[in-house]
Amino acid sequence: MTWSEAEYLNHLRSERRAYAWVMRRHGGLTAADAERAALEAYPYEPADAPYRWLVFHDEAWHWAMLTIHGDRYWAHHPELARPTDEYRARE
Fold first, then answer.
1. How far apart are CA 79 and CA 91, in angstroms?
2. Rounded to the nearest 5°, which phi and psi values hold at 72?
3. Which end of the chain has fewer CB within 10 Å, C or N?
4. How many CB atoms lie within 10 A of CB 88?
């Protein structure tokens, strides 16, 4: 990736916010627990980490749904296969 450190940090914060939102709205976590979960799901990785960008290949919705509903959540909950309008409108 050719993003600057500032761009990486902005994207990291954005994905953490999105993940925490899903964990509160769909996972039933408190705000504090959702924030902790987001930090665990999206830890800061140094610029030289070989897979630093890998977590961004799918959006936070997907990673949160995997955490909440498990593998193949889209097969068991097809209504959650794509982010909801509410998720898209949150910001």
1. 21
2. 60, 30
3. C
4. 10
- Provide the residue type at 7 as one letter: E
Distance CA 52, CA 12 (A): 11
Res 44: pLDDT: 97
pLDDT band for position 2 (50/70/90)?
Answer: confident
Best CA proximity match to 21, nearest among 10, 7, 31, 6: 31
pLDDT digit string, tens, across residues 13-33: 999 999 999 999 999 999 999
Going by C-alpha positions, the residue among 70, 90, 89, 33 that lies closest to residue 80 is: 70
For residue 61, the Cα-to-chain-centroid distance in whole angstroms is: 6
